[in-house]
Amino acid sequence: MSRMLFVNLAVKNIEATRKFFDGLGFGFNETFSDENTASMLVNDMTTVMMLTEAKFKEFIADDICDTSTSREALLCFSAESREEVDSLVETAIAAGGSAWMEPQDHGFMYGRAFRDLDGHVWEVMWMDPAAIG
């Protein structure tokens, strides 16, 4: 059985968040999006639910992580090439995100990371298909 994955993240501004990730080429499922939620499609089996902080708090019994001082997760998505890694990260930074950590170059695998508008860390990585398997 293939499992679906739903990642839920607290965000301050749904409209700004949608614009930011739309600029990186992600689409949204409008059926599950509204003024408090942006349902970002990663692939057929993976969705990132961006929830306003008030909406996010409806699903938790404790506090939202302060992303200016802590990491609640490292989110990573793949790119088709080293060049696409650089392009996506540079696009994110130009759209108001910020660089995070130094690039990681292992020859067969290359990655960079950025922080989105709410401080969540997104890694972008490419791996040489010949090195897999």
UniProtKB/TrEMBL annotation:
Boundaries of every VOC domain copy: 3-127
Pfam families (alphabetical): Glyoxalase
Transmembrane residue ranges: none
Protein name according to UniProt: VOC domain-containing protein
Organism (species): Rhodococcus maanshanensis
